[in-house]
Each structure stands twice: as structure tokens, then as C-alpha cells.
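User: Could you check the structure of this?
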Amino acid sequence: MAEHNYKFNVTMTCGGCSGAVERVLKKLDGVKSFDVSLDTQTASITTEDSVDYATVLEKIKKTGKTVNSGEADGVAQPV
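Assistant: Sure, the predicted C-alpha cells are below.
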């Protein structure tokens, strides 16, 4: 089964910020794994093929955090 690898640069200032991003990713169907790093201000997500970039971006933005940049399978995407 194919999968997607998404990476986002997200402005997170505290553990609560990164925790909020982790919580929405845990609830999103089709997410295989993720790593949210407060130190590097990144969220790396591996999903099933059925989960598109826009869906993941929307979920992260709903936390109220600013998404500065994003990639889908190594290719820069609009935020």
C-alpha cells in the first residue's frame, strides 16, 4: 500500500502548542505515524495514500498554530 510523507514548519512556542498538534494528528484517520518537534518547529507525518496534503494542513491549522511551510513527498506545497 502506498503512503504519503508530509512535513510542516509550524510555529510552536511551548509544550502545549506541540501537544495540540499531536492531539489532532492522533485523531486523524489514516495517519500511520508522526513526529512533532518543538525544538525544530516541525511536524513530520506519514499517512495512508488516501489522506491528502490539504486534509493534514487543515487539521494543523485548526489548532490555531501558524503553518510557515509544507511539503508533500519532498515537494514544497502552498500553505
